[in-house]
Amino acid sequence: MKEALLLHSTVLRNIASLFLFGILIIILQTNHYLLMSVWGICAWLFFFNKSMRFFILTTTAFGIGFFLYGYVNSHWITHLNPEGLLIILNRLSLIFLILPLTAISLIYKLPFMRYWQSPQWGELVRVPFILSGFHHTKVSVFLSIAMMINLIAFMPFIVNNGWAYIQEIWWFMLIFSIINSVLEEIIWRGMLLSRFSEHFGNRWAIMITSIGFGLQHYSLGFSWGGCLVFTLGGLFFGAITVKSKSIIPAVIWHMSINALMVLSGMIVK
Questions:
Q1: 143 and 249 in contact (C-beta within 8 Å)?
Q2: What are the domain boundaries of the chain?
């Protein structure tokens, strides 16, 4: 009976944490200051629960970083031209999210991230969802097939843009895909996944970070429906990070998708 109650309490805590994190990201992007006050009161109440304290501190640090990131992009660089430069500086400003999370790691004497190591390419994952599926394959094989599927999906749009467009945009493609994928993966599958895995376990940590990863794309001009697609991508990135014990496969996968998005005209046209 006690074990059942404990499990129920843990699940409720994890669900509450997922909603708190997701709602914070929505509020920060929609500038609802009244809702922010309500969120702050809820976070303050949860802070008195010892099992939630570190999560609240980590989420607050992330919120501060996201606010700084949003302020920089709405006040400092919004009028810059050309569009490519504006996008690159927007991605570089993700550093403002990393700084408060780094401070949390230093204060609590925790490693910067758990997944900063060589990937275990031979680790078995399940197909099609990495953590669940009907077939087993190696991380290296799964990643190769996934990237090939992505290429096939984007190829009609790339071909439609033509070779001249590729010649014009290739430099931006390289810079954007490297900066964006590395910084985003450090934040979501590096720092946040590490902190939340320590607190919630791998599966819940993947869910929470994936929701956040998807929702934050609203500030980049995507619809809420589009954010759900990025959430799905976050689930795959998080799962392959946990199974390979490294962010490198997710960085490679993320980088390839970013490059394809640029070549297809989805990022800058």
A1: yes
A2: 2-264
